[in-house]
Amino acid sequence: MSSPSQAIKQDQSKIRWERYVPVYGFPVVNSFFLGLAALVLVALILTAVRELAGLGPVSGMNDTYGWGIWKTFNVMVLTALGSGAFAVGIAAWVFRRKRMHSLMRMALLTSFLAYACGLLLLGIDAGRPWNFYWMVFPWKWNMHSPLAEVAICMSIYAMIPLAVENIPPVLERLWYFDSRLRPVVSIMERRLHYFFPWIIAAAYLLPGMHQSSLGALMLLAGERVHPLWQTPWLPVLYLGAACFMSFGCVAGTTMLCCLIWKRAMDMDVLDEAARITNWLIFGWLGLRLFDIIFRGALGTAFRFDRFAGVFWLETILISAGGWLLIWSVRKRDPQKMFVGYVLSSFGGMIYRFSPTTLAFRPNPEALYFPATIEVLVSLGFISLGVLGFLIAVKRLAILPAPLQEWYDMASYFRFRRPYIRWTGYFKFGYFGEEESGTAAGSD
Amino acid sequence: MRGCDSYQAGHHQLAFQSGQSTGNPKVEAAVNVTASDAALVCALNRVATGGLSMTTSEKETIEVHFHKAGVSRRNFLQLCSTLMVAAPVGLTLTSKTSLAQVARAIGKTRRPSVIWLHFQDCTGCTETLLRTSAPDVAHLILDVISLDYHETLMAASGAQAEAALRSAIEENAGKYVLVIEGSIPAKDDGVYMQLASKPAIEVAKDVSAKAAAVIAIGSCASWGGVPSADPNPTGAMGVDTVISGKPIINLPGCPPNPYNLLALVLEYATMGRLPELDEFHRPKFAYERVIHENCPRRAHFDAGRFATAFGDEGHRQGWCLYKLGCKGPVTHAACSTRHFNEIPGVWPIGTGVPCMGCTEKNVLWRMGTFETVPIHLATPPDTYPPIYSTAGKLQVGAAALVGAVAGAVGGAAWVASQRFRSSAEAGVARVQADIVHAEKLKSKPAAKPNDKNEA
Predict the structure, then answer these.
(1) What CATH number has the domain bearing residue B346?
(2) What's the pLDDT score for residue B444?
(3) pLDDT-based confidence at B26, cuts 50/70/90?
(4) pLDDT class for A10, splitting at 50, 70, 90?
(5) 3-state DSSP: chain A helix, strand, coil percent, rounded to 5?
(6) pLDDT at B364 over 80
(7) Pairwise CB contact (< 8 Å): B387 & A262
(8) d(CA A283, CA B39)
(9) For position A9, what pLDDT does the model report?
(10) What's B245's DSSP letter?
(11) Do the Cβ atoms of A408 and B401 come within 8 Å?
(12) Do the Cβ atoms of B451 and A256 come within 8 Å?
């Protein structure tokens, strides 16, 4: 009982995430940051090339595969990873998993970045950019297009609920940054408070609509999608995959951040997230299996072709991830938990990618493989999201941490930045006093 | 009497329109023919019993008219529903969303008196009108409008017919709508066509003098049509060159779609106004767009797939008929969206025949049948980037890049997972040190920063 790892586990169970704390003491610009910025620059240059040259020369799209990875990966797959605001939010607010609140800001930030970068790339993917200006006239929209629901719903979701939900960390930074801003911030906070219930309701409605609509889009492809994937339940399965993938993305990213920036982990929160993810994963796998069996498509899974290969790859990855998560909950092992999240999310990504590309077979000769430029642009826009993430976690209070981390940050700034004496970071004192006391500023 | 059957025929038609069909186009076509024949017989029976010669100075509303005729509310609503189906072209009825609204609008309408004159024509326009079946012609000419004079449909002839025309003009002076079918010969003082011992040109001027509006139906009445083709022996010309001082609406076409006339008359009857016209006096609701814009074969045009001879491979495949002389790209008409006789695909291009351009003054009888027309904006401007449709191929660089990215992400995840245990230990140790430090601070109250105390 007294082995070192046992002791660590006991100590670890005492750690509680009580406050969001920025990552301090690490420069924003480092070599990794510069590398990502270079990728973004390359992507922006190639975007200009794409606008001048047209889609044909720069992408691998053709008449049979009209959707390239910009749509199928950056939008269909990465917005599923970015559905954290939806899935974690519903767990926290609707099902009252109160521990999930400490992951909420991570969920909101990753969602916003995934959606924003996806929508930007979707704009670049528009085949005839000279017609783009029609977008500002809603009465000219083609409401008969199956993509209309996705396009309208997704852009509204990213521009209003997600953007507004990410305002509180910014206000918080302003509040602590300069005490002269506090009256303005408190007015804005009150306004925000008034609208917040409606914003949150919209933030659960809209993704539920468009994440399932993305699956419904592939229903239109009919026979061209392999029977292992083509099902009337595709919208539900797409939404379910988005739920467990986004849990994996939020919790896994938080764990990765804790690893990189040497934060303590609250294993109670992570255990609860892993348990929820488990339910989602195995419920989803069960639904999918029943669907395949009842449609009589199970036989195609035992043929020796690429479709069966992809099917088994994603099924094994997702179930192995789920199994690792169960194991990690029992053993309180962050390593297995992280690998479980990575595997299940990766399997989910393959699942979301398959109906549009891997399991899409318009004719036997058809082939789509993304062109180099396509991959670089896609990578550049993912890098843009990561850049935004790095800046945000280092400037805003996004990552959860024990309360002690907040005090450590204060002493760090007191020692390292003595010249910003007027900064609110010095006034933190002890929290109860600070918050009940003189908010209007004795500074 | 067969008149009662026309409701049933209309019901058949409605079922056909709303998709509850047998699925066999031949059967449906037969139903259509039966429906319109029943309507025709019905109309002729009622004409023979004096329906057309009964004219009154002030027309009652359709509601009152139906009430007097003993038509039930149910049958009236059935008529309204056929009008709803038939009048997607109609301007008045297009905005109405429910049967009750249509019934209200139609019920209040005073039936307009219509006088229909034939000049140099083939009666094709009348024939196409007789083939409408939703609403059928009996309803149209007896209930929706009051057709007071029509040489093809009326039973009367000779002096009796002339008397009918005169009484119709006198009783509705300034209120009736004059429909002219056929071109008017003007050469040699109009001697080439005589009506009741008067030249056609004089008849047209006399009757139009007291009309509220003049509708020129068909290409002949609009601008001469086939009688005016070179060398134009009779000096045939359209209505608008002969008649002046009256609102003239051209409904060109050879023949025009009868629903255009129906929509026009309904608009005039219910709203008392005429629709917006283009520079050739054609109503914009039917003649604003060119056929090419909504042609079902447009994709073949854009892809460069053309039939080059009748019966060749492209023609059998249903490719674009442009190279066979199709005038669709310059012809303003709604044929490509509104087919004839309510049968899908019944229009020239739908049956594999190039468009003749019958609604254009300068195309039909002025251009060669197989001559191709100039294309406005055939392709997007050269400054736009092209949209290639190359076959997919696997780029080695791209594959290597995807592999490298996947490897980097997977490797990073593996390395991260290996470090988790030591990291967890480090995190715990750090927090423990912090807690110890904080307890030390707490044990010395003087060191605790407290703004209030300092103030």
Answers:
(1) 4.10.480.10
(2) 60
(3) very low
(4) low
(5) 75, 0, 25
(6) yes
(7) no
(8) 63
(9) 57
(10) S
(11) no
(12) no
Same domain, residue pair A318 and A416: no
| Residue B378, pLDDT score | 56
Residue range B397-407: mean pLDDT, rounded: 92
The answer to which of A162-166, B36-40, B431-435 has the lowest mean pLDDT is B36-40
Q: Is residue B421 part of a domain?
A: no
Nearest residue in chain B measured CA to CA from A339: B417
| Cα–Cα distance, B443 to B439 (Å, whole number) | 6
- Residue in A62, A408, A427 nearest the CB of B391: A62
CB contact under 8 A, B393 and A369: yes
Measured CA to CA, the distance from residue B332 to residue B282 in angstroms comes to 9
Chain B interface includes A421 (CB < 8 A): no
Angle, helices B73-86/B62-69, rounded to nearest 10 degrees? 140
- What's the domain range around A431? 402-435
Is the domain of A37 the same as that of A148?
A: yes
Count how many domains chain A has.
Answer: 2
> What domain range is B14 assigned to?
2-287
Supply the CATH number for residue A326's domain.
1.20.1630.10
Q: Are residues B244 and B352 in the same domain?
A: no
Write B268-273 long-range contacts (CB < 8 A, 24+). Answer: B268/B112, B268/B177, B268/B213, B269/B109, B269/B110, B269/B111, B269/B112, B269/B144, B269/B145, B270/B92, B270/B93, B270/B105, B270/B106, B270/B108, B270/B109, B271/B91, B271/B92
Per-residue pLDDT reduced to its tens digit, B131-186 = 877 677 777 777 778 888 998 888 888 889 999 899 989 988 888 899 999 999 99
CA of A29 to nearest chain B CA: how many angstroms apart?
20
Domain end call among B287, B318, B338: B287
Q: Scan residues 264-303 of A and list those with Cβ closer than 8 Å to B.
A: 264-265
Chain A: nearest CA to B96, how far in angstroms?
A: 20
Tens of pLDDT along A45-58?
Answer: 999 999 988 887 88
Cis peptide leading into residue B247 (ω within 30°): no
Euclidean distance between CA atoms A225 and A65, whole angstroms: 12
CATH code of the domain covering residue B87 = 3.40.50.700
Q: Is residue A194 part of a domain?
A: yes
Together in a domain, B88 and B182: yes
- Looking at the structure, do residues A408 and A425 belong to the same domain, yes or no? yes
CA atoms A83, A85, A88, A94: torsion sign: negative
Answer whether residue A88 shows pLDDT above 80.
Answer: yes
Domain presence at residue A4: no
Digit-coded pLDDT (tens) for A275-289: 999 999 999 999 999
